[in-house]
Amino acid sequence: MDALMKPLTPQGPLVAIVGGDPLPRGQVVAKMWDYIRKHDLQKPTDKRVIVADANLKLVFGKDECTMFEMNKYIALYLK
After folding, report:
1. For 4-15, what is each residue's pLDDT tens digit?
2. Per residue, what are the HEC states of the chain?
3. C-alpha to C-alpha distance for 12 and 27, rounded to whole angstroms
């Protein structure tokens, strides 16, 4: 099975954003982007930067991160 298709279970603060059901990594990332867009959390001057709200701050551990960094933080909470 392709590693991207293997269902992984969100843990900790990630559950508040994507739910607790096992999902393939690609779907977790897609749900993260849905959440970011729904709550307008991209920096207006640079769409590559995600400005963390209270839920995302728990995942990222900081006030903002780039879209390229996001996957490393997501990986910390997938088992």
Report:
1. 689 999 999 999
2. CCCCCCEECECHHHHHHHCCCCEEHHHHHHHHHHHHHHCCCEECCEEEEEECCHHHHHHHCCCEEEHHHHHHHHHCCEC
3. 17
- For residue 32, what are the contacts with CB-CB under 8 A and spacing of at least 6? 17, 18, 70, 74
Whether the Cβ atoms of residue 78 and residue 3 lie closer than 8 Å to each other? no
Q: Give the C-alpha separation, 24 to 40, whole Å.
A: 24
CB half-sphere exposure, 75, CA atoms < 13 A: 7
Q: What angle do CA 58, 30, 22 make, to 5 degrees?
A: 75
Q: What are the pLDDT digits (tens) for 59-78?
A: 999 999 999 999 999 999 99
